[in-house]
Write a structure and sequence with these properties.
globular, Jelly Rolls, 117 residues, 4-stranded mixed β-sheet, mainly beta, 10 strands, single chain, 2 helices
């Protein structure tokens, strides 16, 4: 991933820096109890601050090479659903409180993930 300051420093406008580096959404509140009712994510970097029990978020549609990061800063475990297909071969994955997960699209219906600290 590129750093926004470096993209801007090369003379690119702000909108180009966001398109290249990705946008950030903070203060998100998880919702719903399944893929259809979960909060739909639209940013590349997502910080979920409020997680009631059994609530979740839904990644955007997968595409090869796409990257999405989800941080759970809420009080409960966060369930992450794909828009369609699977994540790590399953219908959903969980992120424990204070943990982060990086998702990488490998096909139009498949995300793989790496759980971080």
């Amino acid at each position: 991933m590129a750093y926004p300051s470096r993209v801007l420093g090369s003379g690119q406008p702000g909108a180009s820096a966001t398109a290249i580096c990705g946008d950030v959404a903070t203060g998100l509140t998880a919702a719903g109890t399944n893929a259809a009712t979960a909060l739909a994510l639209s940013a590349v970097h997502n910080v979920v601050s409020t997680t009631a029990a059994s609530t979740g978020v839904r990644l955007p549609p997968a595409e090869a090479g796409a990257v999405s990061v989800v941080a759970n800063d809420g009080a409960s475990s966060l369930t992450v659903y794909p828009a369609s297909g699977t994540i790590d071969g399953a219908a959903s994955v969980a992120i424990a409180t204070t943990k982060r997960r990086v998702f990488v699209g490998t096909s139009p219906t498949t995300w793989v993930s790496v759980l971080g600290a």
